[in-house]
Amino acid sequence: MTEKPLIPAPHRLIVVEGPIGVGKTSLARRLARSFGSELILEQADENPFLERFYKNPRSAALQTQLFFLFQRTRQLEDIRQHDLFDTVRVADYLLDKDKLFAQLTLDEEEFALYEQVYARLAVDAPVPDLVIYLQAPVDILRERIERRGIKYEQNIEKNYLERLQETYARFFHAYDASPLLIVNAAQADFVNNDHDYGQLLEQVIRTRRGRHYYNPLKSAV
User: Fold this and answer.
1) Considering the entire predicted model, what is its pTM?
2) Residue 178 annotated as binding?
3) Which runs of consecutive H residues, i.e. helices, occur in 106-217?
4) How many Cβ atoms sit within 10 Å of the Cβ of residue 218?
5) Who's near 177: CB < 8 A, 6+ residues apart?
């Protein structure tokens, strides 16, 4: 894998989103290197409740969700405070997706509490200049999760991935807050294959407004 020289960033804030295993963090890292931009990651490994959640979702859903909410809002507050420097940024999460997970994992009473906390935080998240939404079938997500070998992720059930994928699809079907590039990531390798990445990079640079779909051919490598 080789990196092209740094190129001018076409956007000030690019967000890469999609379900676990689809490759959003790896793609965000590579885009940040290409643009020479600041990288903002959700840092899931810092959440002390996440392993417990994947083993038994009902036992730690609320703690897991609130930790992520506080973590993400702190990061976004830092972005707001440093906007004077007009830094280019690439992130691997969209704050709006926090409520997606909350609705998916919390019961009615827990979600009501979550919404109260969210409202108290009065989050003023920056609006991305481009959102890249990566999609892949559940079987491929499971294969990639298994391949990367994070022990506690091996407890993720297929049913949870199916519901998560459906939740993402509904959310982005209605999403219109930013330009949106919907990418079929099932067959392409945007991290290790320079051709695949280069083709996607061209799409990212060209996408300035509206909703677009990118369906790359199966990688030759």
Assistant:
1) 0.89
2) no
3) 108-121, 138-148, 158-174, 194-206
4) 8
5) 96, 127, 128
Select which of 45, 83, 86, 92 is catalytic: 92
96 belongs to the catalytic site: no
Please identify which residue in the block is written with the tokens 């007009």.
86
Distances (CA, A) of 141 to 20, 54, 156, 173, 203: 7, 15, 11, 20, 23
CA 174 to chain CA centroid, nearest Å: 17
Q: pLDDT of 51-110, one tens digit each?
A: 899 888 888 999 999 999 999 888 877 776 666 456 788 999 998 888 889 999 999 999
- Tell whether 26 is in a known binding site: yes
**From the centroid of its chain, how far is CA 122?**
22
> Residue 9 contacts by C-beta under 8 Å, 6 or more apart in sequence?
35, 36, 37, 88
Kindly report the CATH class assigned to 13-214. alpha beta
How far apart CA 68 and CA 85 sit, in angstroms, is: 26
Q: How far apart are CA 131 and CA 93, in angstroms?
A: 9
Residue in this structure with the two tokens 């083993």, named with its chain if needed: 55
Q: Which of 57, 68, 18 is nearest to 168 (CA)?
A: 18
Asked if residue 147 belongs to a known ligand binding site, the reply is: yes
